[in-house]
Amino acid sequence: MKTTKIPIYILVGFNLFTWLIYLSNPFANSVSEMHNYTILYVLLNILMLYWGLKQGVKSGNRLNPRRIISVKTFFKKYMTPLFVFYILTFSLKYAYELRVPVFDIPALINRIAMGIASPDLGYALTLSGVQSFPWSLYMMMSIVDGAFFIIGMLCWDYLSKFQKSILVLLAVIDVLKWFGAGTSFGILQMLSTLLLVYVISIKSDQVTRKQIIKYVLVGGVIFIFAITAFGINMEGRSGGTFTDIKETDINTGSFFYQYFVSILPKWFQDMYQFIARYLVGGYYNLELAFTTDYDWCFFLGRNNALTRIADDFLHIGIEPINLQHKIYQMYGIDPYIYWHSIYTWLANDFTLFGVPIAVYVIGKLTSMTLMVYTKYNDMVSGVIFILLANCTIYFFANNNYLSGHYYVFMGFVIIWLTSRYSFKQR
């Protein structure tokens, strides 16, 4: 099997996995009149993603970059300044995100410790309070800091032992920060990034059956870490113990529960209600988007970062007209707490009918950057691929991943587009 097919199988396979859970209807009491239609709609988008990824491979093979910066060259020129900048600024970024006074390291440590001890309190504190400094400064730091771990992982083979130790230590601190915030999303991002970098760093063009088994085992270990971290966080958020699954609204008659979940240990059975709500709750809320009025968001509504710019700086008022807010008005579903899936967010700008086309474009650009990275070891293409691939993995959620990395993404895309890529003649 070609090595470049592995990331595509991961992206499409995980989206199909979430769709299968949704198809089994784990929360029968959440079904709306648009349920069956939405099942087909989500499947259509996954098929469009697959088509886009396949077409992107063909287009990527024809791309001829006139100017690249290899991972090795990037490491030699920029890795040390990047380390220095991140070490000097990461605590400021944490202070902004956790809403504690800037430069008050004891307060920051205490805030993280509070969140680890009580995830429900940590999450509540993350949603309230005043940030320590202007958002514009946070945005400028995020442009660099948001790509730090992606770049560090891509440069792993060139790092010294000391640099590797520092990177691992900073990653552990980052994971603790996310635990302190009472959310698993950042931890899952770190693990999915690690998996993607591991896969695209495979040197051979073809992989043997033995190698596939090895990669599946590595992926399985990362998946277990992800589930465990998620379970610990959700257990804390639920008050220190999972509710017995029979006392919840979980559909124990669904085929996914009967044939897969019921054979697992009790702790995992009880945790399944949280996993299922996390993975497919956005699809259930997507059903409601088909029943609300629609207002176009002027290409400023597909993620929170753009909406923030539109509302806080341009004073356009995007949030009151987006689909998430209308669902909240009609059904009382809080847009800041519950997933709506990326499809609802994309619909703000492209309509629900245009979302499959947008998904196709995302898929195509994802595999195009993968091919350029694979062929030329181009750092810019590698970073964009990881950002888009992670965005694709989290299609089931809000468009939070790309929103949190939006300024990094736009910066690297501008560099990529201005590198004067041209197509080879057939």
Report on this model:
The chain is mainly α and 426 residues long. Helix content is 69%, strand content 1%. The protein has 18 helices and two strands. It has helices at 5-23, 35-62, 71-98, 105-117, 119-126, 135-145, 148-154, 161-180, 185-200, 209-237, 255-259, 266-289, 304-313, 323-331, 341-376, 379-393, 400-404, 406-417; strands at residues 63-64, 422-423. Strands 1-2 form a two-stranded antiparallel sheet. α8 (161-180) runs antiparallel to α9 (185-200). The protein is globular and about 55 Å long.
Provide keyphrases for this structure.
426 residues, mainly alpha, two-stranded antiparallel ribbon, 18 helices, 2 strands, 69% helix, globular
- Note the beta-strand portion: under 5%
- pLDDT averaged over residues: 87
Number of strands: 2
Radius of gyration: 21 Å
Which structural class is indicated by helix and strand composition? Answer: mainly alpha
> Which outline best applies?
globular
The spatial strand order of the largest sheet comes to 1-2
Order of helices and strands: HHEHHHHHHHHHHHHHHHHE
Query: Number of helical runs?
Result: 18
Q: For the record, give the distance between the C-alpha atoms at the N and C termini, rounded to a whole number.
A: 24 Å
Please describe the biggest sheet, giving its number of strands, its sense, and whether it closes into a barrel.
Answer: 2 strands, antiparallel
Question: Helix share of residues?
Answer: 55-70%
Task: Point out poorly predicted stretches.
Answer: none
